[in-house]
Amino acid sequence: xxxxxxxxxxxxxxxxxxxxxxxxxxxxxxxxxxxxxxxxxxxxxxxxxxxxxxxxxxxxxxxxxxxxxxxxxxxxxxxxxxxxxxxxxxxxxxxxxxxxxxxxxxxxxxxxxxxxxxxxxxxxxxxxxxxxxxxxxxxxxxxxxxxxxxxxxxxxxxxxxxxxxxxxxxxxxxxxxxxxxxxxxxxxxxxxxxxxxxxxxxxxxxxxxxxxxxxxxxxxxxxxxxxxxxxxxxxxxxxxxxxxxxxxxxxxxxxxxxxxxxxxxxxxxxxxxxxxxxxxxxxxxxxxxxxxxxxxxxxxxxxxxxxxxxxxxxxxxxxxxxxxxxxxxxxxxxxxxxxxxxxxxxxxxxxxxxxxxxxxxxxxxxxxxxxxxxxxxxxxxxxxxxxxxxxxxxxxxxxxxxxxxxxxxxxxxxxxxxxxxxxxxxxxxxxxxxxxxxxxxxxxxxxxxxxxxxxx
Length: 456
Known about the structure:
Blueprint: E1 5-9, H1 16-28, E2 32-35, H2 44-56, E3 58-65, H3 67-70, H4 73-88, E4 95-99, E5 115-116, H5 121-134, H6 149-157, E6 161-162, E7 166-169, E8 172-177, E9 181-187, H7 195-204, E10 209-212, E11 215-218, H8 222-228, E12 235-242, H9 243-249, E13 251-252, E14 255-256, H10 258-279, E15 283-286, E16 291-294, E17 305-310, E18 313-318, E19 320-323, E20 326-337, E21 343-356, E22 359-363, H11 367-377, H12 383-397, E23 403-407, E24 413-417, E25 422-425, E26 428-429, H13 444-447
Parallel strand pairs: 1-2, 1-3, 3-4, 4-5
Antiparallel strand pairs: 6-26, 7-25, 8-21, 8-24, 9-11, 9-12, 10-11, 13-14, 15-16, 16-20, 17-18, 19-20, 20-21, 21-22, 23-24
Helix pairs in contact: 1-6, 9-10
């Protein structure tokens, strides 16, 4: 593996400002630079990437020198690795100390000549570039590439934190009510049962039921079971289970482990959401791992804003409109979760269709084209717009009710809140907020008055 990378050993966050200034200037001079400040996550993966870069790709190590930096365990580890590499590569100048502040010399680098940045970063950079050139460090002035993330990270780090609370909205909908008990049904002993027919009946019954071993779990009462399974056989309650206990501990009769029980209840809850969406006439679209349910022209005309409210304040957002010669239609997928409490996690979906007579025609079947359109048309939607669309969607399917009822049987149901769970942070960021609560993005081909000619 060729060595062409200049590795910068630094402390976080003390040396960030200096490194963010130095790194792009080294790249502008044609050098390849690595510093553990961009796109790295904490833990073993982060340490492995840093170590691998130093050991296998580094041609030089620039060492940020100030007392607070040199005291860091991570920096000392990098110095130790670099000392071994200097011997292995037979390069006594592999480590190049950068004097950012006066510092106490430490064992291993005390005799090395440093590049002085105390007198000025610009003069220090000139001396460093001269040193790298004299030492024959490879650079390419014909293919200069400056990583834009240096500047992006710098801008993010300049965002001011304000000592004031901030309300953040999640995409979690709390389940406010669940039935206390679920029942396990089995056929009467001695009567043969067609298990294929039983499974088919469970799938198509008016209530939700999931096959397990010789029977099935359901929230339905016995009087609901009897007519639905009349063509299969006689089923009776084998056992009743407290739902919370079943999810936490499973059961010994029937023998079902905790994970199996959770998967079974997960399936019932997921199907209850899907059945509810179908009763609302939403368009069903199979994404890779989930079904998405979308608003269509049968529910809402193109370009219409839907009123929604939160904390007594009324807002409005669009769920369907035209953009780039296509019609976009908002929808969601929903997944039940049991931890840290029972809730549904909502994932926003956008589906595109061709335009026919200024309305949505056939949904585009090419998944690659759907992906391209989402990336190009939806990339300008801000968080407020996404949140507004979710709130408008929930207001529409709930008829502006504070909760949605998901039937599990004639006698039992789930209740989920239509107001997503919010979190209040103790601090906020000093960022401009120029978009009003009701505003749509100022892209009239996307969200303004529809004009088919403008979208050609």
